[in-house]
Amino acid sequence: MFHLHYDTHLDALADTLADLLARRDPAHLLQPQTVLVPQPGLRRWLVQRLAERYGIAANLEFIAPAQLVWRLLRAEHAELPSVSGFDREVLRWRILAHLRDPAAPAAVRAWLGEDADDLRSFELSGHLAQLYERYQGYRRELLEGWARGEDADDPQAELWRQLTRGDATSRSHLLGQFLRRHAEADAPRPAQLPSSVFAFGIINVSPDVLRVLGVLGRHCALHFFLPTPCREYWGDLPNRRECETRLEAGESLFDDPPNRLLVSLGGVGRDFVAQLFSYEHVQPDVETFPEDEDPPRDTLLQRVQADVITLSAPDPDMRRDVHDPADRSLQVHVCHSPLREVQVLHDQLLDRLKQDPELQPRDIAVMVPDLARYAPCIEAVFGALGVDDPRRIPWTVADRPLAETHALAALFLRLLDLPASRLTASEVLEVLAVPAVLRGFGLDEDVLETVRAWVRDAGVRWGEDAEDRLAHGLPAFEEYSWRFGRRRLLLGYMSGEATSGALLHGIAPLTDIEGADTAALGALFSVQRILRTLRHAQRRPQPPGAWQTLINEALDRLVPQPEGRDEERALEAARAALRALAEHSAEAAFDQPLDWRTVRAFAQEQLREQAPQQRFLAGGVSVCGLVPLRNVPFKLICVLGMDADAFPRRDPADALNRMLVGRRMPGDRSVREDDRYLFLQTLMAAERQLYLSYTGIDLRKGTAIEPSVVLSELLDHVCEGYFRDPAAARKQLVTQHPMQAFSSRLFVPDDVPMHDANVFTYRDEWLEAARPAPRRVEPVVFADDAWSAENETEAVELAALRQFFRNPAAAFLRIEAGITLSAPDEEVDEREPLTLEPLQRHRLDTVLAANVDDTAGQTLEALRAQALLPPLAWGETALRDTLQSLGPGLRQWQAWRQAHPPQAPHRFRLDLGEGRVLTGVLEELHEGGYGAWVGASHSAGGWMHWWLGALAARALEIAPDCLAWGRDSGKASWRLPWRPAMPTAAEACAHLRVLLDVHREGRREALPLPLRTAFAWAEKRAAGEDEAAACKAAQGSWAGGYNTYAEAGDAWFALAFRGRELFDGAALQGRFEALAAHVHLPLCQALRNGGAP
């Protein structure tokens, strides 16, 4: 018996289902009851509803309608497999075999064109399989005609005949037999049919599935629960296109106008209701309709819903003059960007939760057409508040593809992309940085910076070796490859520091690796070897089963033991994709080799189509995509992203789809019509409030952007049908929000005239930024004022002092505040150099100067082995040019060193009084004085490094003479070599005390003393110029120029002094000038007063 249960409230249908499930046949108490549910989210809501009703929901089998149909077909045909060979997943492999067959009809192969490859064939086979699956559900007669030989010139018909030749197991064929066998009144009962079947929330099913359900209703108790927005019969309403045609012809639409929303948005539901009550497919024996009680009309949303339920047009006599501001049941919010939409939503939810104590986060749903676009914004806004913050709203995100949410899924896809990879240094390091991979090698995240430094210093850029570069169409050179860097690291580890600077068998060992680093070094090499081996194997086409084994083995080696449910699920999802590849192809008897691109495309599809790991209705605010058939009721439903180009989606043009040829049949699917009906379902599912939002203002132009057409239709219907002044009503219902979260409009009190009460924020941290008046920005405090006595008297190393004055802000944040930022020279580059950049030129100059007495260290071979030169002829040119420009300085430096041989490093401890102690090692001492290479004559960093060592040598009275050597750039008033006018020992001690005091102060707070900018200021002051000229020079250095580094872009300084400008004409600039006068001015005066040696 076919029981039809028809209601406008999904929860009422669920309660009816619960009552029926409780009335179990005592003879079948242990038999699971079959419930057909089309969508996982709806299934989860239904289980929760049943559990709330009875305290438990068990011994229930929730399956999709198609699964029940195939189960019944298999019961009558024992030879059928568990998965049909005509299911899309299997059929695509059968089609692929036909497309690859040279004997395939020319018309079939013509689809691929002349430049066809494996990936194109695979994509076409998937598309055709999807079409054939739709034909089986919606065009059974078409397929039966093709099987009889009709449409002989149609390539799809010919391919279908090839697929079905000798195979009568197509779903459409078996379904036709099933319907003919059981259609009669005295037909036998289908085998394995349960005593009762419950179909809940089914709307979008093919006519054949509906016919099967009708047949089952003659042999068992079938309860069909149909949610509908309208309690009246509305299957005879004209569709939207018919209305447009009548209007264009000037005809009247209706004698008694029905509800415009049902006509405009309800096409899918209307067609299904028409099919159901046409008694062509089913003949309901019992029909249960909702009671005719008048629905509530207290709020605007309830009035809209009530007219839909009763199939009524808005009553003109009930129109209102203005909208009640207290009625927040239906609102539209217009923002400048998705981020602002989410920020506004968070504030609005906080306010509604505050105003309505009965409203809980679990009663709220946030739906988005494009979840991938909005999910990062939602996580950034909702996740920015701490657990203890009273403004925090719990939330969960559902429907996100696994590859977007877990590192192991991304790792799986990265492995499949390896053949297209150049195996760059960053790619290998990113694989090693995956937490599960690190843990598999017994490491933690602390080693990553060390490993990254090894790879960078070893000169690794990309590629395995010279042969790998040749395979990429480039010259065969070994430098900057993994083999090049690996040999340097291994030889450095085995040989130790004794060989530092020397070549062993043409290799320059990297000697900064200690015995404790063995595990990290081994992990780096293991990961690189796994990726290298896998990439090599992937370049050969292999059968599906071999691909499964190959990738699984790589996953086993990289992630031997997943930890926690999330990692286990992600890894299982990857293995499930590989398993599907092997199983589906095996079921299709397909064992041909596949290209890696085909395997990657298949895996991406599988991860995208797998059930999301984040469950719908898992607690808190439910954030999800706008999914058909998920018309679950919530007290508050918020829909973001209602943009014109995002919703409703457009039906894609498809020249191969025969369903688009000729007249559209009842029940035919349309993506656009599905979305329109989904919007109507969402409107009706909102129990108390419906919140709609879209990006309606162009960020660059400030012009208006139209919303989704369904939103426009809803606004037109509401404003024109329920208010006497539609324009005024629209202004009240639609709120335009400011572009920035710190706009002053958000902090205007509600009692200010003309202020929109819907424009507000709970983020009081933006209040200061919203103040229009100029304000003094207080310095950022990272440490307490109190400082321990131990730190006050702690000795300072000369190396630490040198590092401190290179960037005082960075030193404070890194050492005292424990903050780590990535500096440009610490990044791993992915490209080999073709020319010498300034930093590389400085490194080369330094190495050449350090090896001035060792001609072997200046050879092309030695410098290339240290990754100091570009490869091939570029390196020869760079070295020749460098030696040509650096030659005079190097020769003078070499001559002076020969006349004044270097002395052994001098370790010292210099007590400067009052707890100021400087310790360290001086390595620049020679017979007769202190001499060191400073780089270039205008190098602020080189001079500061030299100056601190020279001051220590003078204070220790061990350097009667102090000289500097380097490349004379001609950009300074002094030349190189140079003998600065050095202070006496007492003066040196006094200046060192000042520098140590500045260092001590720099441990309490960040100091505004950028090195190059301060040096430029001090240079002008030492030349006797006034403060204005010095400030101008400093500003020029601060801003930078062509091929000149701008310290204004320094991330450390920006973080330490965020919100403040160095040259603000106020306290910060004064502090800078005072520090530069104490630290850099004495150096520049010594340089200015010095002379050539």
Can you walk me through this structure?
By secondary structure, the protein is of the alpha/beta class. The chain has five domains: 2-77 and 194-288, 3-Layer(aba) Sandwich (Rossmann fold), CATH 3.40.50; 88-168, Arc Repressor Mutant, subunit A; 300-400 and 618-734, P-loop containing nucleotide triphosphate hydrolases (Rossmann fold, 3-Layer(aba) Sandwich); 403-609, PCRA, domain 4; 789-1007, Lambda Exonuclease, Chain A. The chain contains 43 helices and 19 strands. The strands form four sheets. It has a seven-stranded parallel β-sheet. Strand 11 (634-639), helix 27 and strand 12 form a beta-alpha-beta unit. The protein is globular, with a radius of gyration of 38 Å. The protein starts with a strand and ends in a 5-residue tail after the last helix.
Describe the protein's topology.
Elements: E1 2-7, H1 10-22, E2 33-36, H2 40-54, E3 60-63, H3 65-76, H4 88-100, H5 106-109, H6 118-138, H7 140-147, H8 155-164, H9 171-182, E4 196-200, H10 207-216, E5 221-227, H11 240-248, H12 260-265, H13 267-277, E6 286-288, H14 300-309, E7 330-335, H15 338-355, E8 364-368, H16 371-382, E9 395-397, H17 407-416, H18 425-432, H19 435-440, H20 448-457, H21 466-471, H22 482-495, H23 518-538, H24 544-558, H25 564-587, H26 596-609, E10 621-625, E11 634-639, H27 671-685, E12 686-695, H28 709-722, H29 726-733, E13 734-736, H30 767-770, H31 789-792, E14 796-797, H32 798-806, H33 808-816, H34 838-850, H35 860-865, H36 872-899, E15 906-913, E16 916-922, E17 925-926, E18 929-936, H37 940-955, E19 962-967, H38 985-1004, H39 1011-1022, H40 1027-1039, H41 1051-1056, H42 1067-1079, H43 1081-1088
Parallel strand pairs: 1-5, 1-6, 2-3, 2-4, 4-5, 7-12, 7-13, 8-10, 8-11, 9-10, 11-12, 14-16, 18-19
Antiparallel strand pairs: 15-16, 17-18
Helix pairs in contact: 1-2, 4-6, 9-10, 15-16, 17-25, 18-23, 23-24, 24-25, 25-26, 28-29, 32-33, 32-37, 33-38, 34-36, 37-38, 39-40, 39-42, 39-43
